[in-house]
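Hi, here's the filled form for the chain we discussed.

Project: internal
Contact: R.S.
Residues: 376
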Amino acid sequence: MKLTKYLLLIAAALSLAACNKEKEEISQGEKNASVSVRIASSNLLRLNQQESAKVVKLAAMIYNGQAQEAYKEVQNALEVKNIECVAGTRSLVVVANFGDRTLQGLSLKNLKALTEELKKDAQPVDLLMTSEIKEITLKEGVNKYGYDDPGDLSQKKPLELKRVHARAEFVSITQKMSPAFKKYKVDYTAVAALIAKKQSFIFGSPLVNAHPAYLYGIKTDKGSYTPADYEEAPSLKREYKGTGEDLADKNMGFYLIENNDGSHPTMLCLAGTLKNQDGSELSDQEKKDAFAAGWIVSETDATTYYPVLINWVNAKYKYEGNHQPMNSIVRNHYYKISLTITGPGTNKPEEEKKISNLDVKCKVVEWVTVDQNVTW
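And the returned structure, exactly as it came back:
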């Protein structure tokens, strides 16, 4: 009996100690500070494409180690005010246009593990954007980050939202057939993205992850670049029957995600029909000869392709300004591609080969725009 009473007393003491400890932790975690966060907007407004800069939903999160200590979201604003939190060294992160994702309550580890996928049936509308994860020291009372006020925590280095996506687009297509190919012309039929990475992380540098899937807008014959896990995505193809000089308002490009796999590089590809210079169809013999040369899809199909490896090092690719191509697609970059055609294209756009009838000029700005000039 005495032993039983003794054990009960020990259990009661432990329970009381646990309650006191819990109360102490709650007391230590009482919110004694607030922070307001303003996002730098200049990098969002550098393009005429204002839709790509629109922020429809913005969430700011404060982390204490891995634990999310505070969360607040706003609509149609670049500022989150009076986030109640606890003084001390913390991590600050901001996400915009996160759709139906639930960010509240996520640990920092789980936040960093979030991914973005290209949809097969539609291009993104409100582009997902993320900031860097910043370490800040909050004092008791009112704190500000991203303002010009005295004592501002950002030290005039406000958080910048960067798009998770990049964009590649044909802005000009010109035919200047070389003397050897003066008898030919090309009627354009479509623009497509090939070997587009399907998924990436939304935090980190690079954003590339190990997910093996890729997407294509047009199905073509397999080549050395063709990945094993490869799906059709209608969102990555657009019909085009223009002149090549009317692209300013045609939107002949796509939002893409980061890809740095040199074995499976992402391409922007022009499809067309190879014809005689007078506009007539190739004869049966001309088609046989063109197919044997690797220019057209078959002896009965005169489809030809002009693939451009985006942001790639190539003697035929020229970049404006001081931009250095990286053999990769990088988030928050806008690749504006001018294509000059000097001869027939290829029937295997996903085959690694020396390009002879194409020149590329590319301009990159941040939203970084890259002007890439290409000559085929």
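Let me know if anything looks off before we file it.
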